[in-house]
Write a structure and sequence with these properties.
Structural class: alpha+beta
Strand content: 15-25%
Number of strands: 5
Mean pLDDT: 79
Number of helices: 1
Order of helices and strands: EEEEHE
Length: 83
């Protein structure tokens, strides 16, 4: 299920004569994959997706390789003021 927010009564016309109309609060909920694909293409220009889309699980054990580890920069010493 996907939840979107836009201006109240905002309408989107899809190619197959399917119309999506937001309610008077500007909210629209759907489970239809074609509607989700179309509405996701309009985010963030015209509408906002309220719920977060489900993402594939990312591996938690990812650690940078030894070659990719960057040394931390040491802070530069401050100069004395010339007052």
């Amino acid at each position: 299920m996907a939840t979107y927010k836009a201006m109240p009564f905002y309408a989107v016309t899809m190619p197959d004569e399917v119309n999506v109309t937001f309610d008077y609060f500007g909210v629209y909920e759907t489970t239809d994959e074609t509607e989700i694909t179309l509405l996701d293409s309009l985010v963030p220009t015209y509408i906002q997706r309220v719920d977060e889309p489900e993402q594939a699980e990312a591996p938690e054990d990812e650690q940078p390789k030894e070659d990719e580890v960057k040394p931390e920069d040491k802070p530069k010493p401050r100069k004395a003021s010339a007052k």
